[in-house]
Design brief:
717 residues; alpha/beta; OB fold (Dihydrolipoamide Acetyltransferase, E2P); Rossmann fold; 7-stranded parallel sheet; 24 helices; globular
Length: 717
């Protein structure tokens, strides 16, 4: 019954409204629209305290009804006074006298509308309302009604909360028997309600305790179904065979030739990767580590091991600047002898035709064991002789289809995903539950610290001048710096560059201010007296690739003192002499993004300084983000904070961040222990019943959870 179409249950008009508002098409979809909160009549609202201009939902009783003629034009006004026991408010209806038949003194119901004021009296003009069935309200029934929690749902302007509740009530009435996807043994061990009982109790609880227990049941239900989907997908990957790749003399000689000792974390991750490569099944591993933690060396070791058996590696980077830097960095890491052996080539869209042809030939013939490139690697013209390993850098910059297109150029190649954005463990279990996750937490010795300061202009506007003095002082000592802003030109937000820029959150945040831009900042800084002899240039997404390369080469060479840039410098810009970064409108960036940005400085012998400039007021959400970044250099701690602030995004879809989550009740920031329990149960169950042949209802629940887009996402991850 859960899969019955809403149209068949609710009628065409209501179904269309629900589909337009939320995309729902089935009874199951609707029943998964859980209440946001509950209230009883006495605690629902205080009319006297409802702010003017805001939407209000009231449970109240009609006190009086009156009609009068309009003074300026023909027609009448129906005025209904209601109370909730704390105050009075007037409902105003124009030319709708017929409503007086229902809105009589003593009638009770739910009323919703925007609070206005007319001649000193609070009013709701043309409110939506739903009256309770007074015929059923005996004294006992009234007492029960007064005690029964009232569910409130996420609503829209076209679908009020009580309209949703009414539709859900109809759906529950026709639900009938439905099998519980959670097996009885697990349900009993976890002290859970039956699935159908939980749906009834969360939507129509007799008491708040019923709703609380139902929520716990459905919370576990969501975690369990999700983890079963991920574990099932992971087990399926183990059935695919691929070429065995084992380390040998080539790998050993590479590691021995390194001019430094590997950290324990690097050694551990390398061992994990070697086990994967030798397993005979495709590796699917995510390696996370902060900027400068040594992920490149780990990846290079895997590349050498692949080359040991004659295989090739394709490394996909999000930008030409980053691809070129990876290319240079890998050649330096490999050393002259090993580089000559692997013959790395660079393949980007801006390469001259002759160089591109040479790179394509090297990849197709197998003479190059390492091909580094951008989206150009995905072209149909790119072929490999024996693609054994795909390395994806900064995976969040790529779509699923792009990653899959590269993987299809080999026969079940191993996949190694790198990210410098630390991922909390619960997110790793949930979002990347079908991947093996390795973490490089320790930093190589000798890394300089980064001093981070919040420049709060709302409190101290005079500090703004000191920011530029501090930047000029660093340059005067022979060092270089960055100035980072959220947009290129006025009245725009570059989505491709400010991936995590936040929406305005609350009154008092600087989000109401116009974004600071490259076009206004560059001339402003150049005009300052202390910068008269300092070389400044702009870097952003609209700069042609050739010009970007020229600018970066000049910056590397020390010919440019300061880059005024958007977040194109977030990854891949490695200039050891850069010691200071100024981030303007710092509150317009996400926590993880700010952390990654500041990792661009302090990469050489000089300590780094990050100045986070903000107009956000103390205590605002925007200010909390900036203060959090300044409080710690621990990327994993900041990732947990970021998760708390931004939520988890669409866990089973390409959209991996943002305030709208693909999860309903589950919150990976809070429910880590529950997720772990669910994963253990999922592992045990699928070990006994890999095909879920004895658990058909669970298989159906997984199929519903994995709609076409989600299934595609998992297939390609």
């Amino acid at each position: 019954m859960k899969d019955q179409k809403l149209r068949d249950v609710l009628g065409d008009r209501t179904q269309k409204a629900l589909h337009k508002a939320f995309g729902y098409v089935s009874v199951f979809d609707l029943l998964g629209h859980y209440p946001r909160r509950y209230a009883t009549r006495g605690e629902l609202t205080s009319i006297a305290q409802v702010p003017l201009g805001e939407q209000a939902t009231l449970v109240a009783e009609v006190v009086s009804v009156s009609q009068r003629s309009m003074r300026q034009r023909r027609g009448n006004v129906l005025e209904v006074t209601i109370t909730d026991g704390t105050g009075l408010v007037t409902l105003t209806f124009f030319n709708q006298a017929w409503r007086a038949k229902d809105l009589i003194a003593g009638a009770r119901g739910i009323f919703a509308g925007k609070v206005g004021e007319y001649r000193g009296v609070r009013q709701l003009a043309h409110p939506d309302y739903e009256l309770f069935d007074t015929a059923e309200h005996s004294e006992q029934a009234s007492e029960e009604w007064a005690k029964r929690p009232i569910p409130f749902y996420r609503a829209t302007s076209s679908m009020a909360s009580w309209q949703i509740a009414k539709a859900i009530g109809v759906a529950l009435d026709v639900l009938g028997d439905c099998e519980d996807p959670v097996p009885a043994q697990i349900r009993d061990s976890e002290n859970l309600m039956d699935f159908a009982q939980a749906l009834e109790a969360i939507h129509r609880p007799a008491e708040l305790s019923d709703a609380a227990r139902a929520r716990e049941t459905l919370l576990f239900h969501e975690a369990f179904v999700l983890q079963c989907a991920l574990v099932k997908r992971r087990r399926a990957g183990l059935l695919v065979a691929t070429a065995v790749r084992t380390p040998g003399e080539l790998t050993n000689s590479f590691v021995k030739a390194l001019p430094f000792e590997l950290t324990p974390d690097q050694e551990s991750v390398i061992n994990d990767i070697h086990d994967d490569l030798a397993s005979g099944h495709p590796m699917n591993r995510l390696v996370q580590g902060e900027v400068g933690s040594g992920k490149t060396v780990v990846a290079a070791t895997a590349m050498v091991t692949i080359a040991q058996s004659g295989g090739q590696t394709a490394l996909l980077a999000p930008t030409e600047v980053l691809a070129a830097q990876h290319f240079r960095s890998l050649i330096a890491t490999l050393g002259p002898d090993m580089a000559a052996r692997l013959n790395p080539v660079l393949l980007t869209g801006s390469l001259p035709a002759a160089a591109k042809k040479k790179a394509l030939l090297a990849a197709a013939s197998g003479s190059s064991h390492l091909v580094v490139g951008t989206h150009a690697l995905l072209s149909d013209s790119v072929a490999f002789a024996d693609l054994g390993l795909v390395v994806i850098d900064e995976q969040h910059r790529f779509g699923v289809d792009q990653r899959e297109a590269l993987r299809q150029k080999g026969t079940h190649p191993h996949v190694l995903v790198l990210t410098a954005t630390p991922i909390p463990r619960t997110v790793a279990m949930t979002v990347f539950g079908d991947l093996d996750v390795s973490t490089i937490a320790t930093m190589p010795s000798g890394r300089s610290p980064i001093d981070t300061h919040v420049v709060a202009l709302d409190d101290h506007p005079e500090w703004f001048a000191r920011v530029w003095q501090r930047l000029s002082e660093e340059v005067a000592q022979g060092r270089q710096g960055f100035v980072v802003v959220p947009a290129i030109a006025p009245a725009e937000l570059e989505e491709s560059e400010v991936l995590e820029a936040e929406e305005p959150e609350s009154e008092g945040d600087s989000a109401a201010r116009a974004l600071t831009t490259v076009m206004e900042t560059l001339p402003m800084v150049r005009a300052l007296p202390e910068f008269s002899a300092i070389s400044l240039e702009a870097m952003h997404g609209r700069v042609p690739s050739e010009e970007k390369d020229r600018l970066m080469n000049a910056f590397h060479a020390g010919e440019i003192d300061v880059l005024v840039a958007t977040t194109v410098i977030e990854v891949g810009i490695d200039v050891p002499n850069a010691s200071i970064m100024v981030v303007l409108d710092a509150d317009r960036f996400g926590v993880s993004q700010l952390h990654q940005l500041r990792g661009r400085v302090g990469r050489g012998e000089h300590p780094g300084t990050a100045l986070l400039v903000t107009h956000a007021v103390a205590g605002s959400p925007a200010r909390e983000r900036v203060d959090a970044v300044a409080s710690t250099l621990d990327g994993f701690e900041l990732a947990a904070i970021d998760l708390e602030l931004r939520r988890e995004g669409d866990v089973l879809g390409a959209r991996q961040s943002g305030m709208r989550s693909g999860l309903k009740l589950l919150r990976v920031s809070h429910d880590g222990e529950l997720i772990e329990r669910a994963r253990r149960w999922a592992g045990e169950l699928l070990e006994q019943d890999p095909d879920l042949s004895a658990h058909q209802s669970l298989a159906e629940a997984i199929a519903r959870r994995l709609d076409d887009s989600a299934e595609e996402f998992l297939e390609k991850n």
